[in-house]
């Protein structure tokens, strides 16, 4: 059967990363006080904000001739980056080995292997630090190349080139506050770098989990494991987010705004609502970094008691 030649330049999956929607919250903010917006990164092909750095790290390594299709790539991940890298590796023809703590959700693990990645698990006690150590050990043994999202400048580069300019354009330059959870810190570093260039007055707020909170995608890094890409000078305020307030905001987003997202996104919106109560006449933007369907097996959506209270 012949394929009809139409002359159309159809996009590939690679072309669909980025340019995600920015929408206004309608029911959660204080009425008439500020404009509170959220960027729906779950609309990326593999379902999270991590599609951006995953593709960037591979594309830039290819551009420098550091890797080529058929090579083995290795990465430590808590989930979203792993899923995004598994997609990008499948798309570009790489073997992908992912290392993650064993207590992450089953949906995340299943998504990675569905894309053809090999999954290696470390214990909850070893955590991301143990996963990172194992990835480097495998690289030293010649078993593949570590992309190293924590220290790879191509991670924030994706947001400097994409997320930041998109937000500036989508808000017509009116953005006054940008709020993002901090894991690898790539999102906040790259976006901050761009936004501070165009308007140094924009307030950049980063989130870390409160003591004893365990929120996928947000970390309080020990000094020895702090991401090399992180620059504290690019963040105006660091805010602690508790487990309960992040989960409560996540449930309220689903029930009251129709936005189905994960716990770290709930934390970002909880922070945005705090800012909303403290300022007026502002345009506040928070990152909704992924979709809620990859957390269903954890039970975080099953306790809906009290979600309608502010």
TrEMBL record:
Ranges of residues in domain Tryptophan synthase beta chain-like PALP = 13-290
Which pathway does it serve? Amino-acid biosynthesis; L-cysteine biosynthesis; L-cysteine from L-serine: step 2/2
**Amino-acid biosynthesis keyword on record:** yes
Keyword set for this entry?
Amino-acid biosynthesis, Cysteine biosynthesis, Pyridoxal phosphate, Transferase
Q: Which domain of life is it from?
A: Bacteria
Gene3D superfamilies per UniProt: 3.40.50.1100
Q: What EC number(s) is this enzyme filed under?
A: 2.5.1.47
Q: What Pfam families does the annotation carry?
A: PALP
TM region positions? none
Q: Which reaction does it catalyse?
A: O-acetyl-L-serine + hydrogen sulfide = L-cysteine + acetate
Names of required cofactors? pyridoxal 5'-phosphate
Family to which the UniProt record says this protein belongs: Belongs to the cysteine synthase/cystathionine beta-synthase family.
This chain belongs to the protein called Cysteine synthase
> What organism is the protein native to?
Kistimonas scapharcae
């Amino acid at each position: 059967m012949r394929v009809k030649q139409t002359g159309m330049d159809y996009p590939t999956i690679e072309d669909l990363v980025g340019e995600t929607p920015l929408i206004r919250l309608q029911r959660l903010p204080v009425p008439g006080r500020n404009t509170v917006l959220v960027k729906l990164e779950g609309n990326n092909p593999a379902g999270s904000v991590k599609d951006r750095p995953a593709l960037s790290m591979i594309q830039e390594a290819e551009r420098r001739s550091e890797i080529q299709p058929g090579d083995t790539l290795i990465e430590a991940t808590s989930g979203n980056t792993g899923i995004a890298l598994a997609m990008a590796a499948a798309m570009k023809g790489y073997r992908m080995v992912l290392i993650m703590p064993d207590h992450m959700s089953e949906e995340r693990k299943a998504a990675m292997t569905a894309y053809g990645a090999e999954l290696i698990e470390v214990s909850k006690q070893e955590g991301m630090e143990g996963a990172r150590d194992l990835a480097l050990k495998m690289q030293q043994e010649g078993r593949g190349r570590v992309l190293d999202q924590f220290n790879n400048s191509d991670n924030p580069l994706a947001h400097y080139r994409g997320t930041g300019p998109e937000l500036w354009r989508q808000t017509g330059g009116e953005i006054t506050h940008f709020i993002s959870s901090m894991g690898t810190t790539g999102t906040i570093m790259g976006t901050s770098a761009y936004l501070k260039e165009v308007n140094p007055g924009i307030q950049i707020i980063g989130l870390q989990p409160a003591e004893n909170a365990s929120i996928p995608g947000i970390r309080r890094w020990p000094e020895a494991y702090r991401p090399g890409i992180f620059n504290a000078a690019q963040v105006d305020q660091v805010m602690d987010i508790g487990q309960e307030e992040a989960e409560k905001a996540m449930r309220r987003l689903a029930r009251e705004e129709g936005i189905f997202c994960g716990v770290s996104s709930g934390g970002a919106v909880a922070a945005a609502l705090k800012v909303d109560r403290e300022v007026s006449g502002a345009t506040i933007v928070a990152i909704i970094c992924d979709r809620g369907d990859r957390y269903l097996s954890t039970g975080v959506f099953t306790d809906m008691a009290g979600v309608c209270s502010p």
